[in-house]
Amino acid sequence: MPAFPTYQTVSVADRRSGTALNLFYREAGEKDAPAILLLHGFPTSSHQYRGLIDRLAGKYRVIAPDMPGFGFSDAPPAKTFGYTFDHLAEVIEDFTDAVGLTRYALYVFDYGAPVGFRLAVSRPERVTALISQNGNAYEEGLSEGWDPIRAYWQNPTNENRANLRAFLKAETTHFQYTHGESDTSRIAPESYTLDQHFLDRPGNDEIQLDLFGDYQTNVATYSRFHDYFRAHRPPTLAVWGKNDPFFLPAGAEAFRRDIPNAEVRFVDAGHFPLEAHVDEIAGIIRAFLSRTLDTAQGKALFGVLNKKSAPPEAQAALNAMVGMFGFVPNLGYALGVEPPVLSAYLSWLQALGTTSLDPVAQQVAMTAASHANAADYAVAVHATLASKLGASTEVVSALRAGSALADPKLEAVRRFAAAIVTTRTQVSDSDVNALTVAGLDRRAAVAIAMAVAGKTLVNTVAHLSQVEIDAGFKPVSAKTEAA
Amino acid sequence: MHIRMLLAGLAMSMTCLTAQATPIPSTSDTTSYHWVTVHGERIFYREAGPKDAPTIVLLHGFPSSSREFDSLIPLLATHYHLLAPDFPGFGQSDAPSPSSYTYTFDHLASTINDFIEQLHIDKYTLYLHDYGGPVGFHIMVAHPDRVQALIIQNANVYKDGLGKKWAGIAKYWADPAAHPEVLDTFMSLAAAEQRHTGGTTHPERYNPDTWTDEYAHLSRPGQREIQGALLYDYRTNVASYPAWQAWLREHKPPTLVVWGRNDPSFVAAGGEAFRRDLPDADIHLLDAGHFALDEKNDEIASLILDFMAKHQP
For B144-163, what is the mean pLDDT? Predict the structure, then answer.
């Protein structure tokens, strides 16, 4: 099974001393799939990525090393190794060579950010995309929580260094995991207990105190990171827990200054959102990567799609689409490369229209399925159609955002449609109960299944062909949307 | 002509189905972590799945905790309500000193039974691993009407299942003070790792978080006394085997046995032996070790889902 995670060690020679360093890493996914390098933060290890790895390994080659001084990697004594972020970055760069990572998306968190950004500056051609999850590169992202550490930078006295020992205590580790989380019962305690076990190792305190001190070099290096962002503009996603006590939301938004197209998303979580919000974040990441990384082959497959490229056999169906939408949606040209499929899809739409499911509910089902498939194109189409069918602005906004609906019937439809996708058709008793409690019956269940099935077709074709969302499906001002 | 093409198409799709394993649906959306006080002891537990679904109570082994089920739970939480407590002295539960809490399997069972009752669960399937075996059997014997079905994973109830190391442990039972080395080995990091990786041909598939976490726990103050007491009390479990076997014969709970056959501690014969008293038991000897979930998590989840579907109303 290719997605089975492995736990291995690789040896790299330290550039400064020549000694061999054993680096532990977690890896999963097909070796020839697009790679994602996950760099952990303080005070944790690749352990923080255990849930995310499971959710990405189906499509990507995911690798998460433990940096020297952390987790299961070697932790040479502070006095001999010299723990600086420059040094950590050298070791991790050599690690990427040792495991054959020549091109990779870079996922950075906390300490992983200054290390990862150094890698990007050093070898920009290797980075296919950037994902920052509470991984800071801008001054405005640093909260007041950094004040005791800043004091040590300004005045590296023994007393200021000793004050930083508070950051190494179990209470602080626990705080890092739970602060900003509305439901701490969702945080597995083995996350912070394992971290604390590693922090409590003899000698690890000096390592961590040295790194607190060296963090000032990161702040001094921020402008070099910005130069890299501006010059190379990698596809970038900043997905942050917005209640992080150490890295403020402004730090995420700041990426847009140098990478205007950066996607910035906030999750209602703290510093470690992967504990209680891993499904939400994995969904955001998968959608981002499928839009940015996984597009070359599909696009090449489809080539240019327009009126001129459409086969003559598709003409009748394309004209019918003008009748339905007022124009030929870009997706029509993509489906139309196989004319019988386009014709069948239009007949299918008509058949769905005659089911017992309410017209707005039909659009809700199709939007929900498309949202679960990370299909932005179809989400835009069906939210627009819902609006034209008289759905309120609140409903239309919720449809575009993929959020819950206030109306119980529509919400039950939304849930059921999403469940068909996420459970791969094996919906649970709870999903059926939610439907019947809302007053829907077996006819509705079958109609929703049909709505979802049709989206499997068009979402697949939209993802492959990467057609642009037509202007006619983009959100308009609130006034005209409600009309 | 058309029918031939249709059948050819069907034949092709059938081979495609068997060629690839499809992932089992899973959800960790509902997994939560709690502490509850049971007669003055704080008991930690994991919970997942719809509260109105049939409940499976998972009882862990030595020296682990409910954590050993963390990859299994999301695969079962799509259909079932899961509860996995940490026994007193283990994991995130309180570990009172032996002077204030008597560490016997009987007492662990009574605390865990009280825990289940406190959560108002009066019918459940039991998943038993290692120490969870004797804890579960004490509970079942005391409350036979509550157990709907049994899932046994390397939890021993037959002398046939006792591997070679138990000869050494028998020396400890005879005279604990004279054999501290038995307890030393029992509590060591090497043994903790071996319980997971022993006998595997795929060591790289084993997550070191597991035994590292376990050893960190065993290294806490007071653990030697606690675990020494329980290891000593284990002799009463072996003495109870005939009574537990008789209970199985009499009550015949629907039973699934999923046994890592490479386990050196509870050997494969211990899994097969259930057939003697439960002729209808569904017995699977898997190419896995003592912590069979480490290497066969998805397969065990599938077997459980099929078993539960057959035996649940």
Answer: 97
Q: Give the containing element (helix H, strand E) for A63.
A: strand A61-65
- What is the rounded distance in angstroms from the CA atom of residue A249 to the CA atom of residue B119? 40
- How far is B167 from B172, CA to CA, in rounded Å? 9
List the single residue in B with minimal CA-CA distance to A6. B205
pLDDT digits (tens, 9 = 90+) for A242-293: 999 999 999 999 999 999 999 999 999 999 999 999 989 999 999 999 888 8
Inter-chain CB proximity B204 and A8 less than 8 Å: yes
CB pairs < 8 Å spanning A and B: 71
**Which residue on chain B is closest to A54 by alpha carbon?**
B71
Which residues of chain B lie closer than 8 angstroms to A191, CB-CB? none
Residue type, B85: P
Confidence of residue A3 (pLDDT cuts 50, 70, 90): low
Distance of alpha carbon A304 from the chain centroid: 29
Q: Quick check: B129 contacting A, CB < 8 Å?
A: no
Are the C-beta atoms of residues A448 and A413 closer than 8 Å to each other?
yes
Taking the alpha carbons at both ends of chain B, their separation in whole angstroms is 46
Tally of CB atoms within 10 A around B191: 19
A7–B207 C-beta distance less than 8 A: yes
Q: Does B213 touch chain A (CB under 8 A)?
A: yes
* Rounded Cα–Cα distance for residues A451 and A448 (Å): 5
Q: Is the dihedral angle over the CA atoms B293, B294, B299, B301 positive or is it negative? A: positive
Residue B20 has pLDDT above 90, yes or no: no
Distance in angstroms (rounded) separating the CA atoms of residues A39 and A472? 41
Tokens coding A170: 């179990």
How many C-beta atoms lie closer than 10 Å to residue B164's C-beta? Answer: 9
Q: Residues of A with CB below 8 A from B201's CB?
A: none
CA-based nearest residue to A381, from A317, A304, A312, A321: A321
Question: Chain A residues with CB-CB distance to B under 8 A?
Answer: 1, 3-8, 24, 47, 50-51, 58, 72, 183, 185-190, 193-194, 197, 278-279, 422-424, 426, 428-430
Instruction: Using a CB–CB cutoff of 8 Å, tell me whether B31 touches chain A.
Output: yes
DSSP for B130-141, please give it.
TTHHHHHHHHHH
Q: How far apart are CA B150 and CA B126, in angstroms?
A: 5
ipTM of the complex: 0.88
CB–CB contact A186 B33 (8 Å): yes
Q: List the one residue out of A375, A377, A371, A459 whose CA is nearest residue A414.
A: A371
- The number of helix segments (H) and strand segments (E) in chain A equals 24, 8
Catalytic residue among A40, A87, A174, A271: A271
* Number of C-beta neighbours around residue A321 at 10 A: 22
Q: A299 Cβ partners below 8 Å, 6+ apart?
A: A464, A465, A466
**Residue in B78, B204, B209 nearest the CB of A194:** B209
Cβ A220 vs Cβ A201: under 8 Å: no
- DSSP structure string for A117-157: HHHHHH-GGGEEEEEESS---SGGGB-GGGHHHHHHHH---
**Which of B:183-212 have CB within 8 Å of A?**
204-209, 212
CB atoms within 10 A of CB A475: 14
CA B233 to chain CA mean position, Å: 19
CB spacing of B213 vs A197 below 8 angstroms: yes
How far CA B62 is from CA of A19, A184, A443, B88, in Å, comes to 38, 27, 51, 12
CB contact under 8 A, A194 and B204: no
Is residue A226 part of the annotated active site? The answer reads no
Collapsed DSSP state (helix, strand, coil) of residue B264: coil
Q: If pLDDT is split at 50, 70 and 90, which confidence band does B219 have?
A: very high
